Amino acid sequence: MIDSSKFPRRLLGLILPPALMLMASASLFAQPAAEEDFSALVKRLQTEKPAFAQRQQTLLQQRYDLADHPAQGVVMSSGKPVQDGVRVRLNRGMTWESLAAKSPEEIKNQQLWPTGFLPLPHPHHEAGGMIFPKFLIEETIKQNDRDLTRFDLDFDLPDHFLPEFPAPIFLTTRPDLGDVSQGKLVTLDNFNVLFKDILNPKQLEGLRLLVTPFPQQQFNATEDRRSLKAHQGVACLDCHANGHTNSATHTVGDIRPNEHRHRIDTPTLRGLNIQRLFGSQRALKTVEDFTEFEQRAAYFDGIPADAARKGTNVLERGSQVHFMAEFQSILDFPPAPKLNLFGKLVPAKASASEMRGQEVFFGKGQCATCHTPPYYTDNLMHNLKAERFFKEVTINGRKASADGPIKTFPLRGIKDSPPYLHDNRLLTLEDTVEFFNLVLELKLNAQEKHDLVAFMRAL
Fold this sequence. Notes:
Largest sheet: 2 strands, antiparallel
Distance between the termini: 45 Å
Shape: globular
Number of strands: 8
Strand order of the largest sheet: 1-2
Order of helices and strands: HHEEHHHHHHEEHHHHEEEEHH
Strand content: 5-15%
Radius of gyration: 22 Å
Number of helices: 14
């Protein structure tokens, strides 16, 4: 049940109305009743779908400015405009400077923590499960007639806040080639033509497996699936499109009860060779471990019985997992022409703002405490303890409480990977700077924030 007494007054409108509360009690993540056949399941969930979609859109509109405002002259690696400005909404009469001047206790007691800085729920948190942006769904249908549409819900964030699609692919083994994707989404239909002269046979087989669909909780052949037709399943590169990310989302399988499960922002696979922690709780120490267990656990919400019943694909370590990992490990970061070999700016190539931002990053901003060059990660976990700024509250099925330790993701190529933080709650780099300015109690001024964003865009 939702404890409305814990809601800030301005959030009361987000509490589920009685009709939706009844729907949630028969939540989508639960198994359908034995007497409910597939056609009845589809009808019921499609009937409920508009109300839950409206609930999520209302939340997003109240939290963020969702307008399309591209930054002047700043684009991702293949030319998609980067969104500009702070999008998280503040309380009426509050400024970022006045908020940063308050202590965590004052912010918590006065209920001033911006709602956009609270954990972001899944598009339908009670339902959970994998869900894909429309552009990925449309291109996958076009290429191989495999439909990743869910009949019960749609992706929630506007396309202009998502990574470019299809993303370019850079390889550590062939940096001379630049983008090897030829502007195409790599799928089972075209991977061989695109890569047969670039990869060795083992890497090519690894790529084949990464674009091969296998059964998943919502996309399979059982009658409690969320696809209209019996489904082949989901491929690794459906979420990690072109070895990057399309911001497809899910809920973690390793946290219970459901309201505590984090929404997942699909991380990029670029630079995987320099990373040392994997999985939503970072309990896996190699990409081989992650590749082997992903389809047994995360694909099925951490429910072994469902994995067995719905047709889990058990990969063989030596001849499949290793091949997949070898391909993943040659995916490179995008070029950063303003950086030297140590990951620092070359003064002759950088703007004055970028140079000032680098000083803030390594100084007052304390960013380099965790994000160390040249790849801007320390490969560790850190607990930001953001819960000291707000009172526990449940919104749209997600309990906003302690996030716990979060992995330090690399910042190389960061402008290509919006939205930010582990659950997509920060839409722009400006939002990210404001979040950490508060959480780390940095007291950055407006110029320092601007310069810090300029520096990160150059990474």
